[in-house]
Design a protein that fits this description.
This protein is α+β, with helices and mostly antiparallel strands. Helices cover about 20% and strands about 50% of the residues. The strands form three sheets. Strands 3-2-6-9-10-5-4 form a seven-stranded antiparallel β-sheet. Strand 11 and strand 12 form a beta hairpin. The termini are far apart.
C-alpha cells in the first residue's frame, strides 16, 4: 500500500465539512477540516485533528479554545477559502459564541475549551469541552471522493 492508495481509500468515507476557528491577540484564524467527531455526551466533548505543519496548530495551543463551524451546502466558498484554495474577495463576518469567533450561517457552531491533546503520526488530536452550541436549519455541505456534494434524502433518490 502506498500513501496515495490510502488517501483514495479514506476519500470513500463521506464527511461533513467544518471550519475550525480560534483567536490569538485579536487575530481570528481558521482552517477547513473534515477530521472532526463527537467524543462524549457526558461530559460533552469533541475532537479535531490538526496537521503538525498547519499554522492552526500553534494558534490553538496558544488560545486554548476553538470553535467548530459545521458548514451548510451554501458555504462551499468558505470551505475553499479556509483551505487556501480560493480567497474570498469579501471580509468574513465573525460572530461570538462563548467568546470564540464563529462563522455566521453555519448549520452548527460549537464553542470549545481545549482539555487535552494527543500527538499521533503527523497530526495532533485536540479534545475540546463544549461550552456552547448554536444551531440553524439548512442542508449540509458534504465531501466525498475529493469533491463537494449535497445531501438528498434516499426516498427522493429512489423516485428519480
Amino acid at each position: 500500500m502506498d500513501g496515495r492508495e490510502f488517501r483514495f481509500a479514506m476519500g470513500n468515507f463521506s464527511t461533513g465539512v467544518t471550519v475550525i476557528t480560534t483567536e490569538v491577540d485579536g487575530e481570528v484564524s481558521g482552517m477547513t477540516a473534515n477530521a472532526f467527531m463527537s467524543l462524549s455526551m457526558d461530559p460533552e466533548l469533541v475532537v479535531i485533528s490538526v496537521d503538525e505543519k498547519a499554522q492552526m496548530m500553534e494558534k490553538i495551543k496558544e488560545s486554548g479554545k476553538y470553535a467548530v463551524n459545521i458548514l451548510s451546502a451554501k458555504q462551499q466558498d468558505l470551505s475553499m477559502n479556509f483551505a487556501g484554495q480560493n480567497k474570498l474577495d469579501k471580509d468574513i463576518p465573525f460572530e461570538r459564541l462563548s467568546g470564540v469567533p464563529v462563522i455566521e450561517g453555519c448549520l452548527a457552531q460549537v464553542s470549545c475549551e481545549v482539555t487535552g491533546s494527543h500527538v499521533e503520526g503527523d497530526h495532533t488530536l485536540f479534545i475540546g469541552r463544549v461550552n456552547d452550541v448554536h444551531l440553524e436549519e439548512n442542508e449540509p455541505l458534504i465531501f466525498f471522493k475529493g469533491k463537494y456534494r449535497s445531501l438528498s434524502p434516499i426516498e427522493e433518490m429512489v423516485r428519480s
